[in-house]
Amino acid sequence: MTTLFLILQLAWTFFVIGAFTIGGGYAMLSLIQNQVVVEHPWISEGTFTDIVAVSQMTPGPIGINSATYVGYDVLFNATGSHLLGLCGSATATLALMLPSFIIMLLIVRFYMKFRSSRLYTGTMSWLKPAVVGLIGAAAVILIVKTTWTGCSPDVQVVSENFPDWKSWVLLGGAFVAGYWGKVNPIYIILAGAVLGLLLY
Fold this sequence. Notes:
- The structure is a single chain.
- By secondary structure, the protein is mainly α.
- The chain has 2 domains: 3-161, no CATH class; 163-200.
- It is built from 8 helices and 2 strands, in the order H-H-H-H-H-H-E-E-H-H.
- A two-stranded antiparallel ribbon has the order 1-2.
- Helix 1 (3-20) packs antiparallel against helix 2, helix 1 (3-20) packs parallel to helix 5 (82-114) and helix 7 (165-179) packs antiparallel against helix 8 (185-199).
- It is globular, with a radius of gyration of 19 Å.
């Protein structure tokens, strides 16, 4: 596979992901995982999980951050060149954002006219549950490792991405602190980083 073909394939893959994602970055994760781990086995499940973790900790939307890191990893692994890795980052990021940019340019002038339409409100009411499902699928993907065979896979649970009790304690503590304690997410991220360094 030539480098140019890989760049074009990466661009098309993330363009399609950007075109069919409704609901923001977390809803996008399951689509990215399916494309870069299953359909095109460019990276491993473990690497994708690491990319998502880093994407959550860095500034910016998690979906775009993930695309940036995936693009770099795919091109760097294929060529061994940091420069081409940066090219992969730029390709994946721009391709992911391009559909939203085009769509917003096309519909922004019509939004005020049609936002009270029954067709519009009906479509939005059906899309909201789908977004919740995509976000839930992303959470399951990050917790459970699966093996896939073919385009219509039989899913077999192999192992968990949380291999020990310490990881589950950190997860539970972060949930309690964020949901009931209303702790600032920045402090939770920093605490998780420090505890991770101490425990592992």
